[in-house]
Each structure stands twice: as structure tokens, then as C-alpha cells.
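Per your request, structure below.
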């Protein structure tokens, strides 16, 4: 579910660069962001490593930023503020994913 949501976000974010801008694209982006948020909220770390637990929270925060980005698509019509939230979420996701793998491989 998370992979499908991220794919929806990516495709819907790339389409405006190709001058394809339809109303349904915002809704598809929002559905993708909601799917990622739901998947990340359901994915919990049960281990004892506090750093990995914090990194999972950062990963959840990136999904929240994707949802804020989707909200900006509806409320900030004509602006590109949604891109800033999308990029912030992507940076947090890349960092958290890399560091989770690194911390879990230390054992």
C-alpha cells in the first residue's frame, strides 16, 4: 500500500511539469498521500533501539508532510508551496530510510 501511494504521489507531482493539469490529479495525489500516511502509522517498530524508534517517527513525519502538501494543492491554488512540503517530506524520508537500514545492520 505504501509503494502504491508513493508511486501515485510521484506520478501526480511529475505531471504538472509536462503541462498536464487536471482537477482529478489533485485528488489522486491526496489519495496517495493518505495511503502513505496510513501505511506508516500502521507500521510500528517493536524493538528496543531508541534511535530506530525515533527514525520511524521521522518517517511518519514525512508522510504528514505529504498530506500537508496535498492540502496545499487544494487551498493554495496557483502557488507552488506544495512543492516545498513535498521536498521536505522526501528529504526526511530518504534520511530516515537510509539511517534505519544502517542502524539495523549494526547488530
Amino acid at each position: 500500500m505504501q509503494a502504491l501511494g508513493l508511486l501515485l504521489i510521484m506520478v501526480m507531482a511529475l505531471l504538472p511539469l509536462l503541462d498536464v493539469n487536471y482537477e482529478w490529479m489533485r485528488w489522486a495525489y491526496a489519495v496517495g498521500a493518505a495511503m502513505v500516511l496510513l501505511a506508516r502509522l500502521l507500521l510500528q517498530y517493536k524493538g528496543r533501539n531508541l534511535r530506530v524508534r525515533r527514525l520511524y517517527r521521522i518517517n511518519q513525519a514525512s508522510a504528514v508532510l505529504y498530506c500537508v502538501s496535498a492540502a496545499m494543492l487544494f487551498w493554495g491554488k496557483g502557488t507552488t508551496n506544495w512543492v516545498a512540503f513535498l521536498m521536505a517530506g522526501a528529504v526526511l524520508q530518504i534520511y530516515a530510510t537510509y539511517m534505519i537500514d544502517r542502524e539495523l545492520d549494526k547488530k
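Residues 42 and 60 are 10 Å apart (CA to CA).

Regards,
D.
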